[in-house]
Amino acid sequence: MSDAxxxxxxxxxxxxxxxxxxxxxxxxxxxxxxEVLGMGRLAQSEPSPDAPPEExxxxxxxxxxxxxxxxxxxxxxxxYGLMAKTVLNSWGIRSxxxxxxxxxxxxxxxxxxxxxxxxxxxxxxxxxxDEVFEADFGSLID
Length: 142
Description:
The chain has 142 residues and is mainly alpha-helical. The chain has helices at 3-14, 20-36, 65-80, 84-90, 96-108, 129-141; strands at 41-45, 58-62.
């Protein structure tokens, strides 16, 4: 088993609010933001909290909290359609705050990096899941 998968499984055991699929979805949403939507900018990232002291800051393509939440919304709708909210909820993702919790869990274990400006609170109330996932398909039901 790869180190990355072992780290994620340990994280799921440590924080059972989110299933493994939730973490994978967030990684996929970041890729979607950068590769499909062209989001992100080059930014200096901080070393992870458990990184060796000699690990230097490095320049990486960075997606903001708002960008990631928007990419997650679009990716979920594209991938799961009418079931997007149900699928995300089944993995423990019920709000944009949950996306932030997942991101910061990944930062804690060194699987993601943040910039000096990034805060966990940046993910709070970016949008309402009920509104964005049900409103997008409301016209199809009428």
